[in-house]
Amino acid sequence: MRYALISDIHSNLEAFRSTLQDIEKQQVDKICCLGDLVGYGPNPVECVDLILSLKKKGKLEVCLPGNHDQAAIFGAEGFNYMAQDAIEWTGDCLERSGAKASDRLDFLGEITQPQSRFFQKNELLFVHGSPRNFLNEYVFEEDVEDFKKLEDIFSYVSKKFSAKYCFMGHTHVPGVFVNNRDGGKYEYHSPKDIQDSFDGKFKLGSEMLLVNVGSVGQPRDGNPQSCYVVLDYEPGGSNNYLEYKRVDYDVAKTVGEFERVRKSCDRLHIFLSERIKDGR
Ligand SMILES: [Fe+2]
242 CA distance to ligand 1 centroid (A)? Predict the structure, then answer.
């Protein structure tokens, strides 16, 4: 099976559309979305509709909830003021989105049920944040030196879920953590490392992995291009691998959408459109 793993779309319709066009070329069987479909960006209604159309076509394996999807339905908790303003505007937008408003809200309501917060298929585990805190925990590259944290997270993957490879989003920073302490840290590979050292294809071998798939709509690794992962995987297969993909999209068009929204309300702060220009 070939999967496209996408995450953190954040209501960026242009990024989402361009990413789906790129995914079409990869001949994947299914798409898994690891959460944060909405929040921050200017086109929540269109992004929910796009995911609903993937579901209707049978292309969607799963859509997990992110903390922003959760906040759109249940209210923002622990958000900074910019994220909170944006998610409250998102909720209002969806509620006032006409005849299909209830379909859209029902979908977000469905994915934010407690039993929908992770998805497992054989030894593959999918979450938004981390396997021990599905919605809110961040696992950053700096954590390679936090042995207790990574040891605990890897042990959740193997003991609680009997899984081996865990895919996540939430930080908006792509990279692979390997359950192997190399010197004073856990082994970690950025997409650039994977390109330079493994010719772009990272093999799923005997070691457990935590894989951050990056962000479609608001990358924060200094590269504004959308990011997603193609996973080629058969249970028990010896040629299983993952590949990071970067996709150009019309950033200026998304910035224009932010400006359109700002003409009638002040709840999408300027920083949110500035940051997508340079991927921060
Ligand atoms: Fe996010």
Answer: 21
d(CA 113, CA 102): 16
Around ion ligand 1, residues with a beta carbon closer than 5 Å are: 8, 36
CA of 106 to the centre of ligand 1 (A): 21
Q: What's the gap in Å between 37 CA and the centre of ligand 1?
A: 8
pLDDT tens track for 122-153: 999 999 999 999 999 999 999 999 999 999 99
| Residue 205 to residues 165, 179, 183, 209, 245, Cα–Cα distance (Å) | 10, 11, 20, 9, 20
Domain interval for residue 266 = 2-275
State the distance between the two ends of the chain, measured CA to CA, in whole angstroms: 33
CATH (domain of 138): 3.60.21.10
Q: Report the C-alpha gap between 243 and 266 in whole angstroms.
A: 39
Distance CA 204, CA 181 (A): 17
- Is residue 280 in a domain? no
Domains identified in the chain, total number: 1
Residue 171 Cα, ligand 1 centroid: separation in angstroms?
7
How far does residue 174's CA lie from ligand 1's centre (Å)? Answer: 12
User: How far, in Å, from the CA of 66 to the mean position of ligand 1?
Assistant: 7
Find the 253 Cα to ligand 1 centroid distance in Å.
21
Answer whether residue 157 shows pLDDT above 90. Answer: yes
Q: In the structure, what pLDDT confidence band is assigned to residue 182 with cuts at 50, 70 and 90?
A: confident
Map residue 51 onto helix, strand or coil: helix
Res 172: pLDDT: 98
pTM of structure: 0.97
Using 50, 70 and 90 to split pLDDT, how confident is the model at 47? Answer: very high
